Amino acid sequence: MTRSTRSAFLALLPLLAAGCGGAQTSPAAPTGAAPAASASPAPAAAAAPDTGGLPAPTAAADAIQPVTITPPPPEGNPFTGVGFYINPAYVKKVESSIKADPADALLLKKVEQYPTAVWLDSIAAAGTVSKVLDDAAAQEKKAGKPLVTVFAVYDLPERDCSAVASNGELTAANGGEKKYAKDFIGKIAAAFKAHPKQRIVAIVEPDSLPNIATNLDKKKCADAADIYKHSIATAIRELSLPNVSLYLDAAHAGWLGWSGNRMKIVKLYEEVLKDAGGADKIRGFATNVSNYDSLKGGDLGKLQPSDPCPDELTYVQQLDDTLTREGITGKAFVIDTSRNGKAGIRTNSGSWCNIKGAGLGERPQASPAPLVDAYFWIKPPGDADGGADPNKPGFDSNCGPDSKDSAPGAPRAGDWFSSYFVDLAKNADPPL
User: Fold this and answer.
1) Helix, coil or strand: residue 284
2) Of 140, 204, 218, 391, whose CB is crowded by the most CB atoms within 10 A?
């Protein structure tokens, strides 16, 4: 968001007795501002993992239970039977890195063929939607087949209430809720309606409802809870159009993997979807946005052994089971694979910012696994999660020199981090 989400999860670790904790910032990272925006394992019988100075988790491990899932209707998958829109603004960023690092030009050039989400992180950005869709129409004509264009909708009032680096432009004090509905969502909806023959996907507000599910101990999140719920219901009502498929943010395995947290978020989905007009307004949910959790296996199980969801594919199944048991059935998932190619790179499951050693993950593709509509690069690889310099705007302590897992030299969230992009390409798994 995010754009890449942050210290939320760390603040939540004390809640593990009731479920689990984390925000895309805590053991996992928030999405970070527009495009963004997510302790070494303890020796046997030794101290608990580093939790950022907070009390250690006390909950016993949740057992992995047999799941009851309700597969989504395959004919509704917006990623099938189409090509993907390639954002020229992202290609331009890649070209800047090629110019700065010509020795790796052949490798970096390969990234330009893959799609990324277009992040709408401000009212100004919302005004560009028609231009993006016009460009997508031109690409469709050239390709001779329909394309799907993916947007991340990311300008919620009091955005990323538990984070620092990716706070947004709208607040309760400046009339943010009304501005969000009229000037932000209203602009986006008008542009979507003006392009009724184009296939569109919208990832709705990374790091939003998960913060309300787990971070109400933070005053800013508690104060923003009703605004979040009302605003997301508004976004669903206005953007639920015949040519648009909506996916609500569902954080990731390291944040909502525990059974207690999954139940909390599902109860919030029930409330918001009822306000929005029903669960049929959305296609499903997006996970791992701007984060680093592996699809299968990985190191989360070692870093957080009490979490019954050690990876994203397990989390998707467990979350679908919880949704099904609460009557929300037939939903699909999109998993962000933009930076989760390499496992074993974090010393703390709460590390989320510009993780050193990360690599591009699975390429964007439709129907890659049960319940999953697509793997997609929602977070454009190379957009920073947050700033590393305490003396510059956009600094977040989770990204700074005291963060063992974060790459040094990062600019503010959403800005291009060229050296990090090059490393992502070199560390890609599968290789480019």
Assistant:
1) strand
2) 204
pLDDT in tens, 262-275: 999 999 999 999 99
Q: How many domains does the chain have?
A: 1
Reported as a single tens digit per residue, the pLDDT across 24-45 is 333 333 333 333 343 222 222 2
Confirm whether 385 is a catalytic residue: yes
Q: Which of 207, 249, 321, 405 is catalytic?
A: 207
Candidates 144, 34, 134; CA nearest to 90 is: 34
Tens digit of each residue's pLDDT (9 = 90 or more) over 198-247: 999 999 999 999 999 999 999 999 999 999 999 999 999 999 999 999 99
Would residue 3 count as lying in a domain? no
Strands (E), 57-183: 83-84, 118-120, 147-153
Residue 432 lies in a domain: no
Q: Domain limits at 305? A: 8-39+52-426
Q: Which of 50, 121, 135, 385 is catalytic?
A: 385
User: What integer pLDDT is reported at residue 395 of this predicted model?
Assistant: 92
Q: What is the CATH number of the domain that holds 32?
A: 3.20.20.40
| Residue 271 CB-density burial (10 A; 0-12 exposed, 13-18 middle, 19+ buried) | middle
Q: Is residue 2 a part of any domain in this protein?
A: no
| pTM score of the predicted model | 0.88
